[in-house]
Structures are given as structure tokens and as C-alpha cells.
Amino acid sequence: MTDAIAVLDIGMTNKKVVLYSTELSMIAEKKRVFPPLMRDGFETHHLAEMEEWFLHVLQEYSREFAIRAIAVSTHGATFVCTDEEGNPVAPCIYYTHEPSREFHDRFFSLVGERTALQATTGTPDFSALINAAKGIFFLKERYPDEFAATRWVLPYPQYWGMRLTGRASAEGTYIGCHTFFFDWHNEDYSSVTDALGIRDRLPYPIRQAWDVLGTLDPRLAARTGLSPDTLVTLGIHDSNASILPHLASSGGRDFVLNSTGTWCVLMHPVDRYGFEPDELGKVVFFNRSAWNTPIKTAIFLGGKEYETWIQRIAGLQLRTPRELPLPEKEDYERVLREKKYFILPEIVPGSGQFPGSVARAVEEGTQYPLSAIEEGKNIPLFLRDPRTAQAVLNLSIVLQTEVALRRTGLKKNADILTEGGFRNNGDYNRLLASAFPDNSVYLTDLQEATSFGAAMTALVALKGIDPVALSRFIHIEKALVPPMLPSTAIDAYRDAWRALI
Fold first, then answer.
1. DSSP state, 401?
2. What's the pLDDT band for 261 if we cut at 50, 70, 90?
3. Pick from 15, 125, 351, 453: most CB atoms within 10 A?
4. What percent of the chain has pLDDT over 90?
5. What span, in angstroms and rounded, lies between the C-alpha atoms of 198 and 179?
6. What confidence tier does 426 reach under pLDDT thresholds 50, 70, 90?
7. 86 backbone φψ class: left, alpha, beta (φ>0; ψ -120 to 50)
8. Is the pLDDT of residue 350 over 80?
9. How many CB atoms lie within 10 A of CB 33?
């Protein structure tokens, strides 16, 4: 049988089981979408149903492949409260739930002042429950009895690791991903864990993604047909998994990874931790790499912004987005020259680089809230012209990307690497190249980057080697993107767009 590595790649939408060879070639993949399990009116993760499916797929794969190791990668902002054996004792609520403004105020009155915490923990104040500490605080308030029964507060990848091995653990990329739980100055759990009363419920020490957690629980080995000697690694945060191949193969060259999807995550590996004074209070933060080094990060809901507006534009034409005629270069030049039409963030208030900005369109000085447009009450004329509307939308996403890139500390001559869904939007990338004449914008061909990065951690554990040694297996083709327009063509429009925000 062919030796293989299995990755449980758990995104908010798609859950995947992906197999890789021991030379990091993808050899199989299965994916599934799980609707939320509703509890008390809240969307929660259906952990039991997901687990059944993972085990079923592993059983299917075990008939063809000798799975030697398993790694887990998950989306952020999710912890699971369990008993001593790792059984959930409280609901695992979607981080998209928004309790109330008063809830956020109560949280900070308990744990500390916002900007002081950002300076210490690298974490900004997000809306909803996107800060994991807020998710725990919500559980304490809403489900006090269940929370009182909690032995372990497990980071999401390590929850699945415990289900596979029976061992509790914590890992640096997840503890350090906008949770408020990690103190960058002391390199330990933060004061927030004390304020919430969970320090002794978080596993210790905080370990690395490629450390071996243990071997597969014998009961699961018997059920799936996998060897009881199958290694299980600590697990890794998805954004940190996606940047790992680039870190291992960059040879020290400066770059920012523009990982695009529902969330656009702009990640810049930097030499030191710390914010500039004007960055505190903004949605800029630090991820912690698999090597425990700082990655300055800025995010916004670029994919969600794009999909929301493109569906509205297509609906006005009674077409699907794919049926819309694409803008020409002349459409962009006209929109930039006239400066009459704009689309402004944010679809989810407080989620990106412009807190306080309300999603809206602007036409010749008149503002049209997205909520009114969606209700069909008041629609600007330019949205009915699909070529103009798409040009305005792409410019909006590019300008949001530009702000996020600069907040990561982008330097002259650093490469900008676009991965994910926006790779397929040629206008977006050519406009981005136009906006950054001092940087090279590349499209990379790394498919399933999150799964690939997680597979790297499993291979490191299996072989007992340094991750950089895997660079011989990492083949990332980079296609240079030519600019659509001179950089000066965007300047006046950019100024007008920012003035409206």
C-alpha cells in the first residue's frame, strides 16, 4: 500500500479530508458542507456529525493507503469546552454570532482596555465572537452550568487532536491568532485568561504545530482500519498553514501573502513584534508563525464584500455573475477619471480596515445604503450598468486591499503573492499591480495551500526533519502580473474614495 499523510482541513464552509504522499503530492480529497446545528437560536458546529464523517472517510482511505500521520488545520476564533476525556460539555457557537454592543463593553470592563490589550496580545477588537476570548466569555454568561463542568478549554485544532488521541494540548499558531490569550512580551498565556478564570483549563505548555501529540486512539484505529501507530500532530491555524510553504521556501526574501477568500488575510513575516502608535485601534494584528515568529496581519471580508455586491449587480440584470459582460480597460479609465461612482465597505461592520464605515454605494454625491439597495427601495443607476458596476466593485476591493497591505508594513521591493479566489479575477490583480509600482505582484499556483501546509507539519513529525528541508518538495510557480494602468491613474479616485469613508 502507498504511504500517505491525512489532513483534516476544517474551514467554516468546507470540511475536507485530504491525502498527500510522503513527497507532498496530493493524492485524494473528499469534502463536505455541514449546516449549522441550531441550539437556543444560535448557530453551532455539529461536532458529532463532523466526527462521524471524518472517521468514515479515513476508513474508506485506509483500504487503499497506509496513512502514517494525521494533521489538523482549522479556521480561527473557535474553542471547545470539554470534560476530562475531551467530550464537549457546552455548545461550540459560530464566531459570526453578534451578541450586542453592551456585551463587548462588559467583556472589556472585565479583561482590560482595548488598545492596551492589543499592544500586549497583538489582538484587535473584532465584532461578533471573532475574538476567541469573547466566545468563552459568552459561554460563561449564557451557559454557566455547562461552563462550570468544563475541564479543558481546547483550541479547535487541538480539540480534534484530543478526539483522535485522548490527549489535551495547546499550540502556538492558534493560541496566537487574535484570541487575546497570548502575551507576546512574556511569551505565555495573557492576563485575559486569568480574568476569565481559564488559565488552569488551558493545556500547558504551548507547543509547536509539528510536535507529535500522540498516536491514534486504539478504538479509532480499530474502527477506521488505520494503524494504532499512526502519528497525530498538534494541529495548526489555517492561515498559518497556508503561509508555511512560503516561509519554508522563500530563502529570506521579503513578501506579503495575500490569501483571498471569504476573508482576505494579508500576512507579512516581520523581524520583531510591535505596533506603530497609529495602528492601535485598527484591525491590524499579529499572527504567530509555526516557528513562533511574528506575522503582521490585516484582514477584511473581501470575498464576502465582492460576492454580496456582484450578486446584487447580476440580479439587476436577471443574470448570474458569470453571465455578466466584463469591464474593459476603458471602463476603468472612465470611472477613475469621472470620480462619480463608488462602493464603500463594510458588509459586516467592524470586520475590516474601516470600522464605522457603513456598506453603501455613492453616485454623484448621493449615498445609497446597501440595506436599501437590497430591499429594492433606492438603487443608483450605475449598478444597472454591469460593466461600470463591476469596475467600481473591483476598484473598491483593490483599495481595501491596498490599505490592508500597507498596514502589514509592506516595504518597497517586497513581493505581493496572491492566492485563493481572487487569483481568478484578472482585473483585480492588474489593478493591484497598478497601485503598487514599487512591488511585484505575483499569482501563485499553490493549490489547497492550507491542506499543503498542514501536510508539511505531519511530514516533519514523521521524518523528524527541519521544515526548511521540505523546500525540495515545494514547487510554487509565480506568474508576474502586469499593471493595467499607470499608478498615477488611481491617485485622485483613491483620495475621493477615502474622503467618503
1. H
2. confident
3. 453
4. 89
5. 13
6. very high
7. left
8. no
9. 8
Residues in the chain: 501
Strand duo 415-420 + 440-444: pairing: parallel
* Pairing, β 231-233 against β 170-171: unpaired
Q: What angle do CA 414, 174, 417 make, to 5 degrees?
A: 20
SS3 3: strand
C-alpha torsion sign, points 37, 43, 48, 50: positive
Q: Could you tell me the three cell numbers for 19?
A: 491525502
Q: Name the CATH superfamily, with its identifier, for domain 243-301+407-480.
A: ATPase, nucleotide binding domain (3.30.420.40)
Q: How far apart are CA 397 and CA 408, in angstroms?
A: 17
Q: From its phi and psi, is residue 102 left (phi > 0), alpha (psi between -120 and 50) or beta? A: alpha
Task: Report the sign of the C-alpha dihedral through residues 121, 105, 95, 277, in that order.
Answer: negative
Confidence of residue 281 (pLDDT cuts 50, 70, 90): confident
Specify the pLDDT at position 119: 97
pLDDT of 402 > 90? The answer is yes
Question: Residue 65 is placed in which grid cell?
Answer: 493507503
Backbone angles phi, psi at 35, to 5 degrees: -60, 155
Q: The whole model's pTM is what?
A: 0.92
Whether 192 shows a pLDDT value over 90: the answer reads yes
CA 400 to chain centre: 16
Domain parsing of the chain, residue ranges? 2-234, 243-301+407-480, 327-402+486-500
Which CATH number, 3.30.565.10, 1.10.760.10, 3.30.1330.40, 3.30.420.40, labels domain 2-234? 3.30.420.40
Give the closest residue to 295 by CA, choosing from 333, 257, 323, 262.
Answer: 257
What is the rounded average pLDDT for all residues in the chain? 95
| 243-301+407-480 shares the fold of 2-234 | yes
Contacts of 50 (CB under 8 A, 6+ apart): 10, 15, 34
Helix or strand or coil: residue 189? strand
Q: What is the pLDDT of residue 11?
A: 93
- pLDDT confidence tier of residue 62, bands split at 50, 70 and 90: very high
Burial of 381 (0-12, 13-18, 19+ CB in 10 A): exposed
